[in-house]
């Protein structure tokens, strides 16, 4: 059942989370924070530090070029228990490529991830959310959109991003970018506030497993059903 915390949101906006009661929701509430376009040498380390301090795992959809440039960050992401996904090699809008070109781009990023992050199944998040039906059917791993768009890339505002996260419902997949300091700060603030309410943050794979759902290749998901 979808649940939202309207009173919590109001409290957060009015008090900045200073006077929240430490009460948990009647049933466990799970959210998946996802971060695109990294790794960023400027902001990803700060995010990883904050997640580690809080015992929280997230999902990172990485760009292949960035993976090659900052392999130590990729290895740290994996070592600290986060999920890694494929965000193409160079952030090209896949719907503007032929199917063959799109598969080559995704394969190039997947190859870099297999080499530098370790062998595994890397979900794909299409840049800008654009992909054709032919490309979706041709690729060999699940693809993921999001169910909550914080618009962090556009507003670059800690409070607005924070509020968007706090309005998430149980089972939501939240879109963020770890290439903006405002997004990192908002995410960590939201984790602190929502964790006090008993909300748990998990990776996308963990979220699907908790719902008893197996993600399949050829399918594009926004959140577990």
From TrEMBL:
SUPFAM superfamilies: Glycoside hydrolase/deacetylase (SSF88713). This is NodB homology domain-containing protein. Keywords: Signal. Gene3D superfamilies: Glycoside hydrolase/deacetylase. Residues 1-26 form the signal peptide. The keyword Flavoprotein does not apply. PROSITE patterns: NODB, PROKAR_LIPOPROTEIN. It holds the Pfam family Polysacc_deac_1. Residues 29-202 form the NodB homology domain. GO terms for biological process: carbohydrate metabolic process. GO terms for molecular function: hydrolase activity, acting on carbon-nitrogen (but not peptide) bonds.
